[in-house]
Amino acid sequence: MKSKLFWLSVVLVFVLGFAFTKLSDNEFYFFAIYTILQGVIMAVAWNILGGFTGYVNFGSAGFFAVGVYTSVSLNKAFGLPLPATLIVAGIICGLLGLAAGYLTLRLKGVYFAIATLATALVFETVVNNWHFVGGAAGIFIQPPQYFFIFDNFIELLFMLMLFLAIVATAVSRYVSSSRLGMGLTAIRDDETAAECMGVPTLRLKLISTTLMGALMGVAGAPYPFFVSFVEPVSAFSLLIAVNAIAMPIIGGTLVWYGPVIGALILGVVLETATVTISSELNLLIVGIVLVAFITLAPKGIVGLVEDFRKKKGATNG
Amino acid sequence: MADRVLDVTNLTKRFGGFVALDEVNVHLDRGERLGLIGPNGSGKTTLINCISGALFNDDGSVVFNGHDITSMPAHQRAHLGIARSFQIPRPFKSMTVLENLCVPLEYAAWDRADHRHISEQAMEILETVKFADRAHDKSAGLTQVDMRKLELARALAAKPTLLVSDEAMAGLSSSEVDEILEILMVLNQQGVAVIMIEHIMRAVMRYSERIVVLDAGKKIADGTPDEVIHNRDVERAYLGE
Amino acid sequence: MSTLDLILNAVVAGLMLGGFYAAVALGLSITFGQLDIVNIAHPTFVILGSFVAYILNNNFGIDPVLIGLLFMPVFYFLGTLLYRFYYVSFERTGQESLSGLAFFFGLMFIIEVILILTFGVDYRLVSAPYIGETLHIGPVDLPYRMLVPATISVIMTGAVILYLSKTFLGKTILAVSQDRLALQLMGADPVKVKRIALGIAIATASMAGALLIIIQPVEPSVGRVYIGRIFAIVVLGGMGSISGTFVAAILIGVVESFISTFYGPSWAPAVGFGILLLTLAVRPQGIFGRA
Predict the structure, then answer these.
(1) What average pLDDT score do residues C90-98 get?
(2) Which chain C positions have a beta carbon within 8 Å of A291's beta carbon?
(3) Beta-carbon contacts of residue A26 (< 8 Å; ≥ 6 apart)
(4) A27 CB near a chain B CB, below 8 Å?
(5) Is the ipTM of this complex over 0.95?
(6) What pLDDT, on the 0 to 100 scale, is given for residue A83?
């Protein structure tokens, strides 16, 4: 997608979002879209390490939750408002990504995946025992009191999430077409060959995990203000971890817009299911869709469209 | 005296109790063509893995262009100018032939390449090895001989001073062997020193200025093709007592 | 109770717990250690076994260990089906890494949610005459609800180790992890061998599940805690070594028991994961693994 077209669309989306906050009174839509946008950020972040570099991360909930609890602890200890906690959460989770990567990236991809799951569960145990942030029982956080130009806090959070989702997507798009992205693709295709062709594989993988961690932390930072009651079970929710993987796989992991498509589609499906049937079913839906796509359409929707176009070209030509 | 490009001194590599390389000494001058032969399991691939950085040796040293690279990671050695092709080709499967070459141009050859025209330079290299017509093909679906050509073209794109070719001709037909041999000649004419591991004797004899023979991890011969072929130890190594 | 008594009991409890963990990790040791199949969903199969034991025990009063034994053939068949599907979808096309992992992740959720939808999130128990009774040897308490599962686990692990090292099919399974091509050249069909291996692995889940529900009440998400635990055990023991798995299981059981006794049970889940990360960082091939 050409640069001009991309940035034009970005501005359009942002303006539309803003218009929506002014025109709509129904708070429900903002709650629903917030969750979908959160999915977009998580999916895009996951894909930088998972799709571009080829290292599967099962502990996305861990990074997300550290972002959540960074916000919680900063807010409780210093009364810091959202913008500040956002930046700090991003930095801390970025460093976390770096550390986790350093510990595990020297191992084969499979071990990395398991280690990420283990890391997330270790964090969950730590948080469960940390009484300052409420431990297993949970904690209440006051929603933002100051709404700027918006009518209520949910509209503010919505616009913030929209902005963050756009930033995350732009970062992912930039990475994919840059020299860094080329190196990551080489690592994904054949790490040994990449190393022999001069690609500093460890360094690039660490950059990848740092970026992913930072973006996931940023996705989690507004969460306490969104739900008001934060508890480890929902912050470390396996649904978050699975969505972060399912969305890119559904959309297509090889391109920057794959996770966005997957997140939008799956997000809408899940939100609809939550209101019409039940939220327990969400995990089942994601599980089935994930297994279905992974076995039948591993290249995702983007891959399916590409194959369809190729077939058309072959019959026409 | 031509200047030394590679100096491998007393190189030893063990895998547990098994000694794969035993105090091997090899040197290479700038632009020289060295053949590396020996029976299966003699340690040829292990030697070049230690030279290229895929493995780290236990004892001894590797000096390249005056730098001691013994503990340097592979990507840094590529940066200094060591390139290798793999016995079983390892293309970047999701990329086209041209894109495969862009990776070493952007990374290994970073100091030596002009960043504004990476694609053009990649094309030039493909033309040198007569592979330009396949530039936009996906690297995943190539034939065996084309994959070997891609391996060599990609190694060339790293703008190396030393290229190690690991059995690039294994399993190819006679005319295909000649195609590969021609590419290796062109490479050498551009000033690249080449270490060629091969089992196809006529290729090794034709191509090499000098031949090193390994057997069970030890160097048993080092000389001109003529000297080596008449060497008793070499005969014994291949044919037994 | 004096500190010495506390320590003694923690060690004994840890040994029994570790013995049981070995039964749970056994299946993963085979699939991951021998077949390179990353079956993250293995604990979920164990939970499935627990619920099977629960239904039959609750409705017909059959002893859970017996149920576990009776259902091993059923689970074996399930395992072979699973391998067939996995092979056709992933191994044949060479897509194991990302796709295989994601597949088992998704499978884990599907099974877990089906269990939740069928049974709800309440904890389920089984009843048997020995649950609730304790054997006292001096200052040491050995509750039967721990002792019986531990003993059965050791027997099952021993049986599997013997099978793999002494029988022809067993040795073939060990061989397939080392050299697939050589195996084909010798006339054995690697696909069939792997199918049998995964069948055996899932069959052990049937028994492990029955034993689990004797030890503790079970609800569908209990399996998640075991993911880190059994991967820690398999990695710590060393890939490809079933006896290594057993030793590692005992070790982790004892460490967990100590942490539980002296720091509280809420820290116990972190033990497995923490040890896993430590092992991966320091000695990824584990205690007995080949490098």
Answers:
(1) 63
(2) 103, 106-107, 110
(3) none
(4) no
(5) no
(6) 79
